[in-house]
Amino acid sequence: MSQSSPFLSNDQLLEVFNYTHTATAVHVGETAIIQSANDAMLRIWGKDRSVIGKSLEDALPELKGQPFIEMFRKVWLEGMLISGKDTAADLLIDGELKTFYFDFEYRAIKNDEGKTICILHTAVDVSERVLRREAVEREQEKEEALQREQVLNEELAATVEELAATNEELVATNEELQETQETLHVLNNELELRVVERFNQLSESEKRFKTMAEGTDILIAVGDEEGNAIYFNKPWTALTGRSMKDLLAFGWADLIHPEDRDRYMNIYLSALRDKIAFSGEFRILTRKGDYRWLLTNGPPRFHADGSFAGYISSCIDITERKLIELERLNLNKLIEASSEFIALVGLDMSIQYLNPAALRKLGWANSKNRNILEVIFPADRPAAEKLLPGVLAGTNFKQEIRFWNEETGNPFWIEWNGFAIKDQETDKITAIASVSADITERKLYQEELQDINLEMAAANEELATTNEELAQTHEDLIQYTKKLADSEERLLQAIDTGKMGTWSIDPKTLEITVSGFVKNLLGLPLDEPATMDDIMSAIDPDYHDIFNTALSNALNNHSSSDNEYPITNLTTGEEKWVRATGRVFVDQHGHMTEYSGLFIDITEQKLDELRKNDFIGMVSHELKTPLTAINGFVQVLQRKAKKDEDNYEMIALEKTNSQIRKMTTMINGFLNVSRLESGKLLIEKTNFNLDELLKEAIEETYISQSSHKIILHPTCGVDIHADRDKIGNVISNLISNGIKYSDNGTRIEITCKTTEHEVELQIKDEGIGIKPDDIDKLFERYYRVQGNHTISGFGIGLYLSAEIIERHGGRIWAESEEGKGSVFHFTLPLSY
Ligand code: ADP
């Protein structure tokens, strides 16, 4: 650089820079090494030139902890400008750390490449300015504080003024209070005077009370606050016969009836505990030794100061009322418990009261909004409607009528007694009452008795007829004995003369040839040949079928025959019985040559048999009459035993009943045999369902015998036209035979088969069975299998059954294997 260069050298520049007033320094690097600092800066720092070349921290150690060193580092690294105004910095000046204020600037000086080459640090000490401003500010604050204090002082002064005013008021109030106190004092004195006066009055009143208490016939007693009685008036001592001393404290309590004592004492003592009024009823022992009912009322008493003083109790004698009440209570209980039907009805016929028995019988829950007519069985209501108005007119009624249970719909008989209830004072009818007894049972007995009476009357009538018949029979028997002698004679003659005819029919021409005996018997001319027509006209028309069947069986099947016929002598009109036996004769080719046999007069024998039958019939009939009566009475007894719940009687009567049933069956059997023999067994056909009949028969059997299991296999599902009772007898007979001839616990099976034309019933048992020899004879009259005679029976059941089935055009037969059980079959035609 030449001498003449107008530019200053670096040193010169620094020189100049030294003189600038603005404190300036140049720093380099992250640690702000002091490159140069002018005097102004050194003054601020309080340092000399020895700091040049030192890092800022080394040069001014007091800056540690202050933000400046970090600011320098930032400016160096980021090439920025940081400046501040009135910024405080603590600097060590003359060994003393002082706070100064600066406006400063740290400016990064960059080269052409933009890289920071140094930091230009300028600072102006504004401490004075800052301090002055702070002093001004402090002054201002002080001023403001003063002003605020001033305001407060003013407010205070105002408050003090107010206080002074209040104080004055207080003084005034105080004065008033004093006055009041004085008035109170006066009042108090007055009060005290009045209390004294009142006390005097009270003693006066107590005196008056006592006089009053003694002068009344109400029982009055006084108790103290402990509950002790302290006074009793005369009526008390008069009633109880005890002295006042005896009654005092709790002495009176000993006289209370033991049943009432605890209850009443409880009332009294618990009222006493709560200091409240009490009231109660009890019986007290009187001087006469009886008890009277008393009603006590005890209001509490209080002392003048309001504290509890005890009780004044007054008692009145309520014995009469109590007795009426008790009577009413008992009456009510009686009505409630009564099994009679008790009702109270308003004048509009609405029910006001029904006792529980009535509700129960009617099946009602209650009687609210119900009319009396609703209790009456609908059919009997018109009768009831006539009765009720009568009561309002003063006529009581007593009527047997039916009420009904609404739940079950069943009526029951009642003896209905209705009467009017009158108001005792006005004598006006206020309601209708009715007390009724259930007479259903009586009614039933009555009906039954009536039935039995009717039966008895019928039985008596029959008895009378039977008696007549008996007389007649007696007469007949005399005649018969006579005839027997005659017939014996005739029989002898018959045997002598061989009085037994022959007959023969030509199978080809059907011409008949008879012997003279036969002609005589039939009343045919001896000198003329007899014809088939002659024979037929002599034979009873009812037997023509039998005759024709025998003939056709002989002709077609070569069967033998043996039949009995009633005949009428065509000349004399005499009626006789004949037996015709017949046999078919064949040649060596098996062709029929003749059908011939004997004709025997069996009139006497037959009559004998008929009489026997009549006799059986009569005896059976006779037996039936008392049996019917016994049956009736047993039923009545059974009902009675059931009602009395007498088990022994019930069992005995059930057994009696079962025996009666057995006997009835036996007697009916004999009656039927007798009727059958005398041609009086009538078949009366109706249409009925066979299944129903079967069920009935099974149920009936179960009633008397439950020893076997009866099984009904698929039902028949047919209606038949037959005599229901008699077919029922057949079924019952076959079932009971099955039971009779098999072990208990075995099964009886009933099966039904239907074809287009007939229905077949099979009754099968698992019993003793029947030998093949016996099986065909079972249906004969009085036939019983040998060896079975330990089992009771007469051998008529199957005989009758066979007759009944045959008369219906059916068949009956048995299948059996000895020891394995039997099956009885019968059929009935379906086409009718
Ligand atoms: P009863 O039973 O009164 O003797 P029945 O006429 O009913 O009269 O029967 C005639 C006989 O047939 C009986 O005595 C009995 O020997 C025989 N019998 C009837 N039913 C049966 C049966 N289910 N099992 C075995 N035997 C029978």
UniProtKB/TrEMBL annotation:
<dbReference type="InterPro" id="IPR035965">
    <property type="entry name" value="PAS-like_dom_sf"/>
</dbReference>
<feature type="coiled-coil region">
    <location>
        <begin position="442"/>
        <end position="490"/>
    </location>
</feature>
<feature type="domain" description="PAC">
    <location>
        <begin position="561"/>
        <end position="614"/>
    </location>
</feature>
<keyword id="KW-0175">Coiled coil</keyword>
<keyword id="KW-0597">Phosphoprotein</keyword>
<dbReference type="InterPro" id="IPR036890">
    <property type="entry name" value="HATPase_C_sf"/>
</dbReference>
<dbReference type="Pfam" id="PF08448">
    <property type="entry name" value="PAS_4"/>
</dbReference>
<feature type="coiled-coil region">
    <location>
        <begin position="128"/>
        <end position="194"/>
    </location>
</feature>
<dbReference type="InterPro" id="IPR003594">
    <property type="entry name" value="HATPase_dom"/>
</dbReference>
<dbReference type="InterPro" id="IPR013655">
    <property type="entry name" value="PAS_fold_3"/>
</dbReference>
<dbReference type="InterPro" id="IPR036097">
    <property type="entry name" value="HisK_dim/P_sf"/>
</dbReference>
<feature type="domain" description="Histidine kinase">
    <location>
        <begin position="618"/>
        <end position="832"/>
    </location>
</feature>
<dbReference type="Pfam" id="PF02518">
    <property type="entry name" value="HATPase_c"/>
</dbReference>
<dbReference type="InterPro" id="IPR000700">
    <property type="entry name" value="PAS-assoc_C"/>
</dbReference>
<dbReference type="InterPro" id="IPR004358">
    <property type="entry name" value="Sig_transdc_His_kin-like_C"/>
</dbReference>
<keyword id="KW-0808">Transferase</keyword>
<keyword id="KW-0418">Kinase</keyword>
<dbReference type="Pfam" id="PF00512">
    <property type="entry name" value="HisKA"/>
</dbReference>
<keyword id="KW-0902">Two-component regulatory system</keyword>
<protein>
    <recommendedName>
        <fullName>histidine kinase</fullName>
        <ecNumber>2.7.13.3</ecNumber>
    </recommendedName>
</protein>
<dbReference type="InterPro" id="IPR001610">
    <property type="entry name" value="PAC"/>
</dbReference>
<dbReference type="InterPro" id="IPR013656">
    <property type="entry name" value="PAS_4"/>
</dbReference>
<keyword id="KW-0472">Membrane</keyword>
<feature type="domain" description="PAS">
    <location>
        <begin position="487"/>
        <end position="558"/>
    </location>
</feature>
<dbReference type="GO" id="GO:0000155">
    <property type="term" value="F:phosphorelay sensor kinase activity"/>
</dbReference>
<feature type="domain" description="PAS">
    <location>
        <begin position="205"/>
        <end position="275"/>
    </location>
</feature>
<dbReference type="InterPro" id="IPR005467">
    <property type="entry name" value="His_kinase_dom"/>
</dbReference>
<dbReference type="Pfam" id="PF08447">
    <property type="entry name" value="PAS_3"/>
</dbReference>
<feature type="domain" description="PAC">
    <location>
        <begin position="278"/>
        <end position="330"/>
    </location>
</feature>
<dbReference type="Pfam" id="PF13426">
    <property type="entry name" value="PAS_9"/>
</dbReference>
<dbReference type="InterPro" id="IPR000014">
    <property type="entry name" value="PAS"/>
</dbReference>
<feature type="domain" description="PAC">
    <location>
        <begin position="397"/>
        <end position="451"/>
    </location>
</feature>
<dbReference type="InterPro" id="IPR003661">
    <property type="entry name" value="HisK_dim/P_dom"/>
</dbReference>
<dbReference type="InterPro" id="IPR052162">
    <property type="entry name" value="Sensor_kinase/Photoreceptor"/>
</dbReference>
